[in-house]
Amino acid sequence: EGVTEVLAHRSDTLQDKFVEVPCSADYESHKRFAGCTPRKCGRGVTDAVITREEAERIRRIAERGLSLGGSDGGASILDLHSGALSLGKHFVNLYRYFGDKIQDIFTEEDFALYRDVRQRIQQRIAHVFGISSSAMYLTKPTFFSRMNSTGAKTTHDEYWHPHVDKVTYGSFDYTSLLYLSDYSKDFGGGRFVFMDADSNKTVEPRAGRVSFFTSGSENLHRVERVRWGTRFAITISFSCDPQHGIGDPRVT
């Protein structure tokens, strides 16, 4: 795979690490939104936005939700917005499937923490890229992921393929990942890899670490296969187009 550089080691505690890269042409084929559409592109990592304790609380939300289902393969997702939950080889709607019981699983405090964390990540991205956070809209899909070493049973389990978020999800302009477990302690493999022409740049997950980047082809990326243990993260993404905006999830 050529040269690999580590952008962020698990043992590092990073205030704000940012690497600027030239923007791709991906944004040209979409409507531009002044004060939001990327003109400065790149990728950042910070350990200074979410505490480890908050990350552990959020991981417990993911664990409770995913305990209701889970993929037969190695990758399970839970989307609190749409209610999509991996179950076997398919997805079910958590809210329809479990109905009123959902209030026994998630609390208002869970959703308040989720909302607070989302807002802090949004503000940090806006600050680093020099845009207005009010011009950014939370967009779908936004989801928890749980990955382990179980073999893939469907294409949904094959999370390790290189991809570009703006191509996969047209609405994405800024992508963030909040890691909820620790590389080499909770799981092996599972590093996040930016795939550049000259080298790969890896981010080693640690609980509370936020990795964020512009969503175009300038940030082609993949996740290594998890070799052992369990890797938890949440993907939270933003669009500049208000028509693609979604609200925060609520218990009711």
TrEMBL record:
Iron in keyword set: yes
Cofactor(s) required, per the database record: L-ascorbate
Gene3D superfamilies tied to this protein: q2cbj1_9rhob like domain
Domain Fe2OG dioxygenase: 140-242
Domain of life according to the entry: Eukaryota
Annotated keywords: Dioxygenase, Iron, Metal-binding, Oxidoreductase
The keyword Cell cycle is annotated on this UniProt entry: no
Descriptive protein name: OGFD3 protein
Organism expressing this protein natively: Loxia leucoptera
